[in-house]
Amino acid sequence: MDVVLDDRTGQVSIAQVKQAVDAGQAVTRSQKFKIVAGSSLRDGASTGDTLYFGSRESQTMLRVYDKRLELDQKGRDEAKDYGVRWELELKQDRAQACAKALLTLPPEDWREFLVGVLRPYVDFRETSREDEPWGKYRAPLLPWWESLTEGFKRCRLVLEKVKQTIDDVCQWLADSVSAMLALAYFHRGEQYLQQLIYTGTKKWNGKHVGMMHETRNQRPYVLRHT
Fold first, then answer.
1. Which of 80, 92, 181, 204 is 20 to 30 Å from 61 by CA-CA measure?
2. What is the DSSP pairing of strand 122-124 with strand 84-90?
3. Residue 218 half-sphere exposure, CB side, CA atoms within 13 Å?
4. Nearest to 59 by CA among 31, 28, 94, 86
């Protein structure tokens, strides 16, 4: 899931962001930062630098680049409608959590929410590389960053792990493999399915054993007076 926020008024340049990173003013959970210079294959004209925070292997990565310049070099008339783009790439659980959150919000609240998601990943503060981590996170925001993010607060994407139950497993079997099981039954017979089940028990790990114990130990809740 790609979340894009365009600075259409040109409040912050790519050069400002690079300068802040060089000065150690980028407070981020990312461990990697790189700059990729872009150019046109047609005439060699620069399409600007792209700043990367994070890696493609992680669930979150940020790209910052001049979308207006990129489209202008392509001769696109709509280039003026864009600006410096802050593009947050979310994957897997974080993408799912963000999408579910957006579904609960009216579109007019999306910008505030998404800026809130961006800010815990990277903030720009009046700090330096030499400062202690706790001091960096408490330092004041750089004025241009506070203005760009409109004073929106940070927010966290909470990734809840849903515990799978035996009922969930049975439903998955019914939905996904019941047709194949029926074919196996009519082709190989009931004894084959029993052998398949026996073989499956030999592949159980701690999760499977735990699910069996939970089912066997279920009992009504009893209030005990002390």
1. 80
2. unpaired
3. 8
4. 94
